[in-house]
Design brief:
alpha/beta; Rossmann fold; Isopropylmalate Dehydrogenase; 2 domains; 10 helices; 11 strands; 20% strand
Length: 282
């Protein structure tokens, strides 16, 4: 069972296949630095899709080389995203990463390929390595669905469970965030009943407080996007928490990073993509 970000990186480096990531519009300085470093370390193999001229300018100004990198030149963001998605659909890449392009443009290209969807709901799953904890914390959804309804909440839980399974987290205990420990939610109780088909190693709880989750659980489900975002931002800004995350719900996950994310966080997200694409390969 993987317990921290360093173990994620180590396991991903050892994985022998399913390590190719297509970077949609890789002409972004912070993304390009992290991707080149990750390739040099044997973490991934990257296919850089985007404005090749800008990529080379970024490399020159950053004093690193793209000579060994595979590059597909495309200046138009929509076409570049479509090319990256095509690489995933053809099996030439096993996951995607967002570069210098709006998330909506990349998701539109991905959603245009129904053959790549596994669920009707796509959601973002953050995986946090928080100082003082003895295990990773999975947290969802801080990137896709502002206020999920009942159907979406169940799908969000299943997306998170898929990622936990790939990382070998067992048992996986998770719950719905609530302000009070004694709060009752018939909606969440019903969802927990539906999730019984995940098997006995997945143990959902209908109501948990943030304090209890941080001390005892492996996963936390927010009922609104701002809850998730506020907690994650606070952790990453004011502690040494390592953040990684994927958009789940398609056969190929998407590394969704912001320009402010550190190189460490970006590489952790890439490692997460490798491990999910490998399906738990040891």
């Amino acid at each position: 069972m993987i317990k921290n970000a360093q173990e994620m990186l180590d396991r991903a480096r050892l994985q022998t296949g399913n390590k190719t990531v297509a970077i949609a519009m890789a002409n972004d300085s912070s993304v390009l630095h992290a991707v080149v470093e990750a390739e040099q370390e044997g973490l991934i193999h990257a296919i850089l899709v985007g404005n090749a001229t800008e990529m080379k300018e970024i490399a020159e100004s950053g004093d690193f080389s793209l000579d060994e990198m595979e590059i597909i030149d495309e200046k138009d963001p929509a076409k570049g995203c479509a090319l990256a998605v095509d690489l995933a659909a053809s099996g030439k890449a096993q996951f995607l990463m967002k570069g210098f392009v709006k998330t909506a443009v990349l998701l539109k290209a991905l959603l245009s390929r129904p053959d790549l969807k596994t669920r009707d709901v796509m959601s973002h799953v953050a995986v946090l390595d928080i100082p003082g904890r003895d295990r990773l914390l999975f947290f969802t959804d801080g990137g896709m669905i502002p206020k999920p309804d009942t159907r979406q909440k169940e799908a969000i839980c299943r997306n998170m469970a898929d990622l936990a399974r790939a990382l070998g987290i067992s048992p996986f205990r998770f719950g719905f965030l609530a302000p009070y420990a004694d709060e009752q939610s018939s909606e969440h109780e019903e969802i927990c009943e539906h999730l019984a088909d995940l098997g006995p190693t997945f143990q959902p709880m209908s109501t948990v407080t943030a304090e209890y989750a941080f001390q005892q659980l492996d996963g936390l489900v927010a009922t609104a996007i701002e809850e998730c975002n506020t907690i994650i931002k606070g952790l990453t800004l004011h502690t040494d928490t390592v953040f990684s995350g994927l958009i789940m719900g398609a056969t190929v996950p998407v590394c969704l990073v912001s320009r402010s994310d550190s190189v460490t966080n970006k590489k952790a997200s890439l490692a997460l993509g490798v491990l999910y694409a490998g399906g738990g390969e040891k």
